[in-house]
Amino acid sequence: MTSLFEKAEINGLVLKNRFIRSATWEGMAADDGGPTSKIVELYTRLAEGEVGLVIAGHAYVHPQGKHAPRQLGMDQEGLIQGYQALTQAVHEKGGKILSQLSYGGAYLSKSRVEHDPWGSAGSGSSLRKCGSQG
């Protein structure tokens, strides 16, 4: 039986052990979606506590897909420096970090959607027309 404390590899990514912190939503990001000092501290402490892989979770890739306030975002170049600092901090403690990308989709509040996702059709009539053709 393989030990949880042995090195592991996932598609070329070598981990110091098999402990993985799954993606979650902390609600600790900055208003613009960037990582805050609280998130850096949390993920660094996890790596310091021997978690081999931290998965930063629920990061939106487009403002229209933002599901909740204080959610991590990866939708603008201005955030790169903060993510580089976060990654470096986790690496310095011997951990690895990945990010779960997400889109709010059906769970988005109508108040968060700035435009009609169906385009000029408004009511989704163009989708119904496509579906009825075959």
Summarize the structure.
It contains three helices and five strands; from the N terminus they run βββαβαβα. It is α/β, with parallel strands linked by helices and 134 residues long. Strands 3-4-5 form a three-stranded parallel β-sheet, with helices on one face. The protein has a two-stranded antiparallel ribbon with strand order 1-2.
Q: What can you tell me about this protein's structure?
A:
With 134 residues, this protein is of the alpha/beta class. The protein has a single domain, classed as TIM Barrel. The chain contains three helices and five strands. The protein has helices at 37-48, 80-92, 125-131; strands at residues 8-10, 13-15, 20-21, 53-60, 96-102. The chain has a three-stranded parallel sheet with strand order 3-4-5, with helices on one face. Strands 1-2 form a two-stranded antiparallel ribbon. Strand 4, helix 2 and strand 5 form a beta-alpha-beta unit. Helix 1 packs parallel to helix 2 (80-92). The longest helix has 13 residues, at 80-92. The chain is globular. Residues 120-134 have low confidence and may be disordered.
